[in-house]
Amino acid sequence: MARAWNEDRRRDRRRLEQNILAVGQEINAEASLRLSPTLTTAQEWHRKIYAGTSVPVPYYLGEIRDTDPRFPELIGYEVAVNGMPGLPSADVPAELGRFQQAMQAAVSLLDPQMPVGTPPMTGGDLQGVMALAANAHGEWIYIHPFANGNGRTARLWILWITLRYGLPPFMRLKPRPDTLFYAAATQASMRSRDHSQMIIVLNDMLAARLRAGPGA
Q1: Class of 12-212 per CATH?
Q2: How far apart are the C-alpha atoms of 212 and 168, rounded to whole Å?
Q3: Which one of 36, 102, 106, 110 has the fewest beta carbons within 10 angstroms of its own beta carbon?
Q4: What pLDDT is stored for residue 129 in this prediction?
Q5: Average pLDDT, stretch 43-50?
Q6: Contact 111, 184 (CB under 8 A)
Q7: 8 Å CB contact between 61 and 42
Q8: pLDDT for 97 beyond 80
């Protein structure tokens, strides 16, 4: 039976905060490179987030549910959030393949519209970025590829996308945003693959960040 991984240990919290900050800084530093979005990218984020912390099984870091016989405890590893079951582990690899393909197709369309260092200049461009961020977050939550840490990784995808297109960081990575709207939008993504609520939430978060000014 697989060893469950559900909660962070109290003694690891400071280390997690430091690790997440470092990953965010790395994403910021690489934003202008317009790197291709890959599963490997997220796997490395996951390993870096939990580096130096206590985990039930070392290979839980960066490896996905039901992919490789070298990682037997992840084969058949099922997850649930607030009683809501995640995608069956047997379906995770194929869905991640589709996720990567869709992400790469999306950035290939958006990149030419917004030169490096230039934020979205039209409402249409901005909504294209926000829709991609919401869908990346929502699909990652829906797939739930890791044994734990999926929400943090999903929020890193939002940071990765918005920094890529010249927007200021507006999504809190840890702890998770505590608004009811964010929680409801996340549940909609996981329950029915409906990411439209998250688009609204992200627009509201961005608007609040812009109102707060550059020093916020």
Answers
A1: mainly alpha
A2: 11
A3: 36
A4: 98
A5: 98
A6: no
A7: no
A8: yes
- What the block records as the tokens of 46 is 């996951």
Residue 212, both tokens: 């707060």
Reduced 3-state DSSP string for the chain: CCCCCCCCCHHHHHHHHHHHHHHHHHHHHHHHHCCCCCHHHHHHHHHHHCCCCCCCCHHHCCCCCCCCCCCHHHCCCCCEECCEECCCHHHHHHHHHHHHHHHHHHHHHHHHHCCCCCCCCCHHHHHHHHHHHHHHHHHHHHHCCCCCCHHHHHHHHHHHHHHHCCCCCCCCCCCCCCCHHHHHHHHHHHHHCCCHHHHHHHHHHHHHHHHHCCCC
Q: Compute φ and ψ for 117, nearest 5 degrees.
A: 85, 0
**Against a cut of 0.90, is the pTM above it?**
yes
196 alpha carbon, distance to own chain's centre: 16
The C-alpha atoms of residue 201 and residue 207 are separated, in whole angstroms, by 10
